Amino acid sequence: MASSKSNDRSSHSSEHSGVQDQPQRKASSVAKKPMPSVAPFVFAAGDPQEGNLATPINNSAFTRWFINQLPAYRQGVSPFQRGLQVGLSHGFWLLGPFVALGPLRDTNLALFAGLGATIGLVGIATLAIAVYAESAPLPPIATLTTPKPPTDLGVPQGWRLLARGFWFGGTSGAFFATVLLLIFTF
């Protein structure tokens, strides 16, 4: 038994001695690429914890121009006009999916069922905007793409006006789309 322990020790020590006897590998000299002088992603505010990156997409002149032309960020527009423009577009395009994919899509009532569903969804969205207005929202924060956010949406009255404009625009857009579909398809 003593001999088996000594054999175990000798085999164990030979395993370790084999590892020690191996020559160390030298680090291969790999040609390193030079770092670009301008990084494609930088922190917009300089603070990595903020999470606002300046990328080639959001930092381009076209992207900033496009976003600042949207009704939510355009300068010189009242909250009611902002809501009206956003509501018109939403009411106009929401009608199509309700007409084409709704449960009454194969009947003569598809257009009017879609109109009712669109007005219902615009009403729900208007209610959501009105509830948000009552929650005393914080003023918008300036970002890389929107350096001058509208200040009128920093108070509840601005959001109330936006909700009224959204309701009026959404229902008007849905009725306009309905009239166009009545004229051109039926």
UniProtKB/TrEMBL annotation:
Alphabetically ordered keywords of this record: Membrane, Photosynthesis, Photosystem I, Transmembrane, Transmembrane helix
Compartments, as annotated in UniProt: Membrane
Membrane-spanning segments: 109-133, 165-184
Positions of the UniProt region annotated as Disordered: 1-33
Basic and acidic residues: bias regions: 1-15
Topology relative to the membrane: Multi-pass membrane protein
Location (main, coarse): membrane
Domain of life assignment: Bacteria
Keyword hit for Cell membrane: no
InterPro entries: PSI_PsaL, PSI_PsaL_sf, PSI_suXI
Domain Photosystem I PsaL reaction centre subunit XI: 44-182
UniProt similarity note: Belongs to the PsaL family.
Protein name: Photosystem I reaction center subunit XI
Source taxonomy: Bacteria, Bacillati, Cyanobacteriota, Cyanophyceae, Leptolyngbyales
